[in-house]
Design goal:
The protein has 12 helices and 8 strands. It has one domain: Rossmann fold (3-Layer(aba) Sandwich), CATH 3.40.50. It is globular and about 45 Å long. Helix 1 links the parallel strand 3 (about 40-45) and strand 4 (about 65-70). It has helices spanning about 55-60, 85-100, 115-125, 150-165, 165-175, 175-185, 195-205, 210-220, 230-235, 255-265, 280, 285-300; strands spanning about 15-20, 25-30, 40-45, 65-70, 105-110, 130-135, 240-245, 270. Strands 1-2-4-3-5-6-7-8 form an 8-stranded mixed beta sheet, with helices on both faces. By secondary structure, it is an alpha/beta fold.
Length: about 300
């Protein structure tokens, strides 16, 4: 087991890579495991990619799951168009993967934004999602209800987003030293911030379409109707749900976890000690064990 100061430098390249077309855009998909095994879809968080599940996909495949990971539109190696999109748009991409490639109900494991996307997909098409892991679920609406904005306020928001220097922000974020500093806010276990993870987050920022894509998704997330935010989606989800949270998470504070439990006290919440915002990568052995044990108890063989 690595200790502080050591680097693991694992590869983020797992599984067989293919391309999926969604509304004329290319999505990169990873697949690992036997074709006869039940399917499990991994959905990454904001600014990440399917490679962020480097320490989870092989373990889930070894445990008898057919594992898929998709780079959501705008992230990883997928297309980066200017498209006003929010969690509903990304959920459509996950559902498209299920319908076109998997063709049977799946388990979804989502991290941060990916958890919100998985939750959105489970509510939109409950017949396609048989269980859901939110690890963690990040949405500012869990802390403060989204206000209803007047037309002039919506216009001002759009104008502000166009004036934001997205290219400069992404250029700064792609600098390795600054990226490493920023990711330390997400990782409690800093030794897991190896070169492979830094490359995973930095490369998409350097692509030509990154700035316009970020502008579109920022606009979309800011204009979501209240019924498409986490609080309302939690009230409507019907499949079994496991919620995992890092005890030292500074990006999705424990107040969000408390809000989830308050909204749905029937959901199971487990807190992982000594983990930050990325428990799946910070302590993958414990994370994988919890998820696999819960799936074994929750789903029929």
């Amino acid at each position: 087991m690595a200790t502080a100061g050591e680097t693991t430098d694992e590869t983020t390249d797992w599984g067989q890579v293919s391309v999926l077309h969604w509304q004329g855009q290319l999505l990169q998909v990873r697949q690992l495991g036997c074709d006869d095994d039940p399917p499990l879809v991994l959905v990454h968080g904001f600014a990440a990619a399917a490679g962020h599940w480097r320490a989870n996909a092989p373990a889930f495949a070894a445990a008898g799951w057919r594992v898929y990971g998709v780079d959501l539109l705008g992230f990883g190696a997928s297309a980066q168009p200017f498209l006003v999109q929010d969690n509903r748009t990304w959920a459509q991409q996950v559902l498209h993967l299920i319908e076109q490639c998997i063709q049977e109900p799946v388990v979804i494991v989502g991290h941060s934004l990916g958890a919100l996307v998985g939750l959105t997909a489970a509510v939109a098409r409950p017949e396609l999602v048989k269980a859901l892991v939110l690890a963690p679920l990040q949405d500012p609406a869990l802390l403060k209800p989204q206000p209803r904005r007047r037309p002039w306020q919506q216009f001002l928001m759009l104008l502000q987003r166009w004036l934001v220097p997205w290219r400069l922000i992404l250029w700064l974020f792609s600098r390795t030293w600054l990226l490493a500093w920023g990711l330390k806010a997400a990782y409690q276990q800093h030794h897991r911030l190896d070169q492979a993870i830094l490359r995973l987050f930095a490369r998409p920022c350097r692509r030509p379409g990154a700035a316009r894509s970020l502008a579109g998704m920022t606009m979309g997330m800011g204009r979501r109707p209240p019924q498409e935010t986490a609080p309302e989606l939690l009230r409507r989800v019907t499949c079994p749900v496991l919620v995992l949270w890092g005890q030292e998470d500074r990006l999705a504070p424990r107040a969000m976890a408390k809000a989830v439990v308050r909204l749905r006290p029937d959901l199971q919440l487990q807190v992982l000690e000594d983990c930050g915002h990325c428990p799946h990568d910070e302590d993958p052995k414990r994370f994988n064990g919890i998820v696999l044990a819960w799936l074994g108890e929750t789903l029929p063989p």
